[in-house]
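Following up on my earlier thread - several people asked me to post the actual chain instead of describing it. Fair enough. Here it is, all 249 residues.
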Amino acid sequence: MAKKTIQIKNRYTEEIIFECEAESIKEAVEIAIMKKANLRKADLWKANLRKANLRKADLSEANLWKANLSEANLSEADLREANLSEANLRKANLSEANLSEADLSEADLREADLWKANLSEANLREADLWKANLSEANLRKADLRKANLRKADLREADLREADLWKANLRKANLRKADLSEANLSEANLSEADLSEANLRKADLNCIFYNTKVNLSQRKYITEDTDLFKIVEESSSNLKENKVEKKNNG
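Reply from S.P.:
Thanks for posting it. Predicted structure:
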């Protein structure tokens, strides 16, 4: 493929912020990052950046709407306030990335690595996070309404004041997560692991079925629930005892 002049512009002013000879926009962005160019507010909507190495890139406030970032390396990248709505981030490495206040609504984050990522106040409404690694991530005040978190790893995640209304958390691992003051109304927690999670002041008017909890957590959960597995706190073997719903009939 012949090289051509590729310009990267500011999303708001259309001012050229980086220019080079490259075969593709992916190569141009990688060159810009290698040269430590400032790509803040870059206009990269619908850009094909599949498998791109964007580690530690400054893409804060960048427009990445519908961009293809599948399998890209965005570890430790600065994506604060970036527009990633409807972006393809499947299997992307976003470990320790800063995504605070970013727009990830309807983004594809299936199997993405978001270990220790900062997603505080991020918009993840209707995002697909199936099997995503969100362990130790900061999701404080994040909007996760109607998000798909089925089989997601949320161990020790900070979900304080997060909005999880109608979120799918089936088979999710929320062990030791902080869900204090979180909104879980109408969320699906079937077969999820909530053992040792902080549920203080959380709205737990949600769907429980075969959900793992500790005895001490039962006081936070309403009586009209279906089925729990009570697990011993701090137990290595996690001894389980099924506790069935009282039959009111």
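Confidence is low (pLDDT under 50) at residues 235-249. That should answer part of your original question.
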